[in-house]
Amino acid sequence: MRRLFVFILLASISTIRAQPPADLVITHGTVVTMNDKKDVIDDGVVVIRDAKLVAIGPAAIAANYAAKKTIDARGGIVMPGMINTHTHAAMTIFRSLGDDVADRLKRFMFPLEAKFVDREVVHWGTLHGMLEMVEGGVTTFVDMYYFEDEVARVAKQMGMRGVLGETVINQPAPDAKEPYGGFELAKKFIADFRGDPLITPAFAPHAPYSLDEAHLRAIAKESEALDAPVLMHVEEMPDEMATFRKDRNQTPIEFLDSIGLLNRHLVAAHCIFANDSDIALLKARDAGVAHNMVANIKSAKGVSPALKMFDQGVRVGLGTDGPMSGNTLDIIGQLGYVAKLHKLVNHDRTLAPSVKVVEMATIGGARAIHREADLGSLEAGKLADVIIFDVDATNLIPNYDVYATLVYGASGKDVRTTIINGRVIMEDRKLLTVDAADIKAHMRAMAKSIGERVGPVPK
Amino acid sequence: MRRLFVFILLASISTIRAQPPADLVITHGTVVTMNDKKDVIDDGVVVIRDAKLVAIGPAAIAANYAAKKTIDARGGIVMPGMINTHTHAAMTIFRSLGDDVADRLKRFMFPLEAKFVDREVVHWGTLHGMLEMVEGGVTTFVDMYYFEDEVARVAKQMGMRGVLGETVINQPAPDAKEPYGGFELAKKFIADFRGDPLITPAFAPHAPYSLDEAHLRAIAKESEALDAPVLMHVEEMPDEMATFRKDRNQTPIEFLDSIGLLNRHLVAAHCIFANDSDIALLKARDAGVAHNMVANIKSAKGVSPALKMFDQGVRVGLGTDGPMSGNTLDIIGQLGYVAKLHKLVNHDRTLAPSVKVVEMATIGGARAIHREADLGSLEAGKLADVIIFDVDATNLIPNYDVYATLVYGASGKDVRTTIINGRVIMEDRKLLTVDAADIKAHMRAMAKSIGERVGPVPK
Fold this sequence. Notes:
The structure is a homodimer.
Chain A: H1 2-16, E1 21-32, E2 40-49, E3 52-58, E4 66-72, E5 77-80, E6 82-87, H2 104-116, H3 119-135, E7 138-145, H4 148-158, E8 161-168, H5 181-193, E9 199-205, H6 213-226, E10 230-234, H7 238-248, H8 252-258, E11 266-270, H9 276-284, E12 288-291, H10 293-298, H11 306-311, E13 315-318, H12 332-346, H13 354-368, E14 386-389, H14 402-409, E15 415-420, E16 423-427, E17 430-431, H15 436-453
Parallel strand pairs in A: 1-4, 1-5, 6-7, 7-8, 8-9, 10-11, 11-12, 12-13
Antiparallel strand pairs in A: 1-2, 2-3, 5-14, 14-15, 15-16, 16-17
Helix pairs in contact in A: 3-4, 3-15, 12-13, 12-14, 13-14
């Protein structure tokens, strides 16, 4: 009888004190929330349940949850995963080929892709690219390429979040023998992957100059009907600007607006040559912009007025572009370039302060893909895309200002742990969902074969 | 009798087949020599004896030497150590303080140094900076700071090569209460360290605008008498250019030439505003130039015409500047910026090809400090400053072009092993001559104290 009483008493206490469960609690890090108030919590805690952030707060809140797993981030920075708003991940297979060659796209890259890109290249190239992104703290990537259904499959295998666009272009493509064959592929791809928790399938019309108006209008219509994003290179090329001025007396952005493509579905990559009127249109139509600083200056094209856009409320995120253009795929490698180039071209070292650049990389990227409601900052209710930085690296000591440390000192290799959709994808630099050594071995073997067959790089 | 015969026979064979000894043989790497012909040896060998390179060649030559130690660099890149031609290593202590502040030097940095820099700060700050440089593949650093004898002592403790200049300036300094007190300190420092195998002591007059003509002339005379280098900030500041134009109707470089300072002793840092006439003078007088791209654009000052200088035969190397200016201290972090910014400002993606940028970082740096006879390339007879790169990192795969891989893909963290003057300083990322954890612990403690006392960063 007494035993029964004690049992009931203990059971009652247990019920009263029951802690809500958590899948993962991250403790003791400096939590950089990137919320509206830019709260930074020393010795902070991040609580994850299922795919979502449940709570963010001071050390004491950890005791409120019964955690299945705890990660001690002591001495580290805990922050939202970074969003790579423009890339062609599979092009890792061509990295370090023809970097310093003039006028590459039509003379070198298109023929290279026609000769070598197939489903297997996309499979391994994308895995390799995602490996680099996850190792560098990218949790969402926006990809435009061919065989995009294969990209989606390997992204799900990796556990990585993607906005993935099947390319539509006015010439034969690696996955479509006929010009514009990608349009049908894109529609099927979007049908197949709609509603996936990790994948947002999209249309990727290559550029305003590489599709005819009828196809661009058709894509605008379909994207509206399907509520699907449209990923596109926009105002990247000097001859693109000249042609639209000559043929239509418009900027490409004005043209896109005139045919219904400049809207909340669009993620416009580059916008190097956007003028003030273009910027006002981008803002008015609520389009997103992917700012690819490293790739843009490597190609000697120019510095996009992306800081001005950002300051005027345009949805601006950061992108790496493909690894033949920008070579590396982690967003951290962009941060220093973004800060310094905007200072340089505006002759003012106070511009592009580090906090603003980190904003572009996180919540800015979420805005660019119209996902700021559930991505881009550490706030309860958002999806659990979180990274943990090591700050024991020599280059990150001292750390008087966490944003300056990230922008001016950090490398992608300082990321220790990457969590996507609540799942730990990399822990203490060990990949948990894929065999990194196997991916690298396949890439080396494929690159060896391509290297032997590629022929001379044009002068 | 038969035993004696056998013994003599074996001894003879042993004598005939005796291999010359080697302290260290590095095998199986891709050897990037940076010699005049830019030879790259697949599966190459580098042989080191005492402080020098004895032989560089194909795999077969390894068998010619009796090696005390062998490092298998299979799959890696073996190349000359990089030369950081301009820094203030001790300023690591202030890293991430006031990065985005306008007009910092006089408003913020000089007062900060006056308040906090002492021998202990220089001791630990320099150790920390060298730690980062060795981890990032820098084998020689050119330093201008205060308490430079302390810098020399810790460089010898680390085993790092340095061209070290004691600062002379027209105001009280952390190590000299009276203006120009550094001049006497510099002479004593040079006397104390002349002939050291690792340390080349030097004068470091701060800038043309921060010393009077009499002191600059005196330094010119002493540097000639002592055959000592002169390290100086030159044509870095817009108001420096304006003042010399107004007061003397000269550029600062013309002024230095007129007072005998523009010569083979000088390493001129920055030269952002050098005009064609300045470039011709730098070339004619055989002066060295330290090109600090990252720091120069972060401060929004401009892009030095260093590529033009390099192409015209001026002695141009790369530098990081101090870590309040450029934040990181490894030269690899400069390579991508150097390539891309020269492309950008010249509107030509074929400029600054990757091989040329690697040249600036190695043999170019050696030329800038007038040490190309014994540093900067892997050639028999030169000093053994060698680094080994890992190419298993995700960002370095594929590797179709080793120079492109280094310039556009690599990070300082991809260096595995650093050898200076024939001595292995870091092996497989473990520091062998200093206690890295102890250095970091001291830096954190000092930074914590400074952070509590520093007061507000100016707006």
